[in-house]
């Protein structure tokens, strides 16, 4: 059971339980129609039916300045009930955000979830949960083509069906990882480093389960020689035992992280994981005028690097460095070295240069969009093996 009063605070474990109930005993408070609300960063002109629930078309709410909000009513499954029905909406918003890689939100209480009809004032109150910047630098492109919306719907149907069919332990693990991606999208505008930390950690959550330590543990080539020497040299034996203890405590998390992505998000598929930054605009133009040539918007830049331009060693180094940058943030508060939180016109990587006197260091950094794309597809690809 969830708390009697959630008091405008979210405990996501309650949302996980609300989305999928495995034999939980219901009380009289859970009887009756159940609704929640989904706030999206794009207009939804067609309803989404997920069998378990139904998302109605969005209502656009105009806000002061250059912001709007898009509010969708969600008809929850009957088993959820009216008590704290917003918990289902929060879980659904996390899943939709993870699948579409577009930030969606829900309400933190069920105050408006028990009304049959919403007034204009009610919609304005809901809009405050997720105002969307629709003009100016950093604005969202709020119109998505019908073809893209249908594709999103299909992907979500598959993911939700899988989440409802796997065993409870697997469901809990994946939902926790999904929530980390959701939170990453949520905080990206306020703190890029925290968003970066969360998306890398979301991958690590699953990588620790998918890739066992035994697959990546390393043994020093001279270990057998050291073992022989330790038999006759008591002082060296102490050093050797300390080395074995240190090696035994090493979980090889970075190596497991890299191997997980190489296994479940192979480089050959990265082009399908990451849309061009201008793809939404190009799709919208095509939907209005199919004859319009938009190749100039989404083509590869003259000096731009794509994954196929790099060796496997370079790709592994980029992935490994992403884990290091995440660790620098969590242990030292040091931001990732990216000079732009957005991909600009480069689809996969950013160029990084640092100067130390006459020494110049150059390397490629993964765009945030590449990282969340890798997180989404690697986790789903792994989940689909279960």
Concise account of the structure shown:
With 386 residues, this protein is α+β, with helices and mostly antiparallel strands.
Helix and strand layout, with pairings?
Blueprint: H1 12-19, E1 35-40, E2 48-49, E3 54-55, E4 59-62, E5 67-75, H2 86-100, H3 120-127, E6 132-133, H4 146-165, H5 168-187, H6 192-210, H7 223-232, H8 234-249, H9 253-264, H10 270-273, H11 279-288, H12 295-298, H13 312-332, E7 349-356, E8 359-366, H14 368-383
Antiparallel strand pairs: 1-5, 2-3, 3-5, 4-5, 5-6, 7-8
Helix pairs in contact: 1-2, 2-4, 2-5, 5-6, 5-14, 6-9, 6-13, 6-14, 7-8, 9-13, 9-14
Annotation keywords:
6-stranded antiparallel sheet; 47% helix; alpha+beta; two-stranded antiparallel sheet; 386 residues; single chain
Describe the structure.
This protein has 386 residues and is an alpha+beta fold. The chain has helices at 12-19, 86-100, 120-127, 146-165, 168-187, 192-210, 223-232, 234-249, 253-264, 270-273, 279-288, 295-298, 312-332, 368-383; strands at 35-40, 48-49, 54-55, 59-62, 67-75, 132-133, 349-356, 359-366. The strands form 2 sheets. Strands 1, 2, 3, 4, 5 and 6 form a 6-stranded antiparallel β-sheet that branches. A two-stranded antiparallel ribbon has the order 7-8. Strand 2 (48-49) and strand 3 (54-55) form a beta hairpin. Helix 2 packs across helix 4 and helix 6 (192-210) packs across helix 13. 32% of the residues are buried.
């Amino acid at each position: 059971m969830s708390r009697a009063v959630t008091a405008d605070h979210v405990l996501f474990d309650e949302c996980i339980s609300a989305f999928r109930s495995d034999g939980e005993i219901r009380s009289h408070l859970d009887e009756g129609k159940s609704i929640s609300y989904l706030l999206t960063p794009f207009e939804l002109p067609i309803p989404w039916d997920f069998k378990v629930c139904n998302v109605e078309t969005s209502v656009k709410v105009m806000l002061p300045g250059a912001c709007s909000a898009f509010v969708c009513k969600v008809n929850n499954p009957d088993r959820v009930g009216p008590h704290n029905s917003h918990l289902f909406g929060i879980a659904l918003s996390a899943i939709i955000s993870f699948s579409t890689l577009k930030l969606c939100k829900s309400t933190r209480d069920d105050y408006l979830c028990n009304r049959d009809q919403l007034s204009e004032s009610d919609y304005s109150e809901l809009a405050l949960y997720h105002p969307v910047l629709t003009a100016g630098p950093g604005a969202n492109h709020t119109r998505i083509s019908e073809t893209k919306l249908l594709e999103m719907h299909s992907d979500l149907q598959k993911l939700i069906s899988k989440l409802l069919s796997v065993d409870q332990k697997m469901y809990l693990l994946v939902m926790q990882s999904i929530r980390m991606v959701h939170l990453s999208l949520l905080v990206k505008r306020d703190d890029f480093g925290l968003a970066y930390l969360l998306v890398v950690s979301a991958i690590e959550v699953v990588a620790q389960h998918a890739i066992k330590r035994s697959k990546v543990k390393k043994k020093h080539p001279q270990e057998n020689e050291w073992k022989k020497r330790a038999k006759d040299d008591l002082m060296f034996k102490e050093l050797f035992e300390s080395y074995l203890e240190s090696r035994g405590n090493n979980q090889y998390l970075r190596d497991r992280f890299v191997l997980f992505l190489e296994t479940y998000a192979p480089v050959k598929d990265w082009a399908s994981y990451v849309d061009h930054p201008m793809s939404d605009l190009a799709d919208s133009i095509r939907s209005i005028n199919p004859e319009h040539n938009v190749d100039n918007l989404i083509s590869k830049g003259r000096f731009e690097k794509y994954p196929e331009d790099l060796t496997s060693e370079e790709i592994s180094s980029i992935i490994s460095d992403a884990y290091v940058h995440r660790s620098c943030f969590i242990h030292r508060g040091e931001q990732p070295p990216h000079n732009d939180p957005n991909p600009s016109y480069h689809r996969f990587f950013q160029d990084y240069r640092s100067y130390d006197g006459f020494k110049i260091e150059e390397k490629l950094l993964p765009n945030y969009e590449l990282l969340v794309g890798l997180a989404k597809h690697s986790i789903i690809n792994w989940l689909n093996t279960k």
